[in-house]
Specification:
about 140 residues, mainly alpha, two-stranded antiparallel sheet, 7 helices
Length: about 140
């Protein structure tokens, strides 16, 4: 758990961070809840925590989700051809670009994970934070 000051700093970092840049791809779309869910759904080890020592496939999949046209990303996911689409797209990627992207991608995922972490609730605040029931609308009484 983290305190609210740490969480606020991580949120600021995530929002204000410049876009990830890969030489042959240029600026990538930022990590979003949508791409986070896509990558988790496809079993990307960088998000599931199950990435082994050779995480190149996971990094390339991350790059695909953030650099390929969105309609192609959605189509690959919907058709069940994710791995094939990633591999086909990656045919023109240079190995040094993927190597250079690895620490940047990992840092972006860590920054987003920290920003999404639940704030620590102090014992003195326990029970104070409750979900707001929402507006009370008339029910035709």
């Amino acid at each position: 758990m983290q305190d609210n000051d740490d969480r606020s700093q991580h949120l600021d970092d995530a929002i204000l961070a410049p876009p990830l840049r890969v030489r042959s791809l240029g600026a990538l779309r930022p990590l979003s809840i949508g791409t986070f869910l896509i990558l988790r759904r496809t079993g990307n080890g960088l998000l599931t925590g199950e990435s082994g020592t050779d995480n190149m496939e996971d990094v390339v999949s991350y790059l695909y989700a953030h650099a390929a046209p969105l309609d192609r990303v959605r189509e690959a996911l919907a058709s069940g051809r994710w791995r094939e689409a990633v591999t086909e797209w990656a045919l023109d990627l240079r190995p040094e670009d993927v190597r250079d992207a690895i620490p940047l991608v990992v840092r972006e995922i860590e920054r987003a994970a920290a920003a999404m972490a639940q704030p620590e609730v102090k014992d003195s605040d326990a029970g104070k934070a409750q979900a707001h029931p929402g507006p009370q609308l008339p029910c035709g009484e």
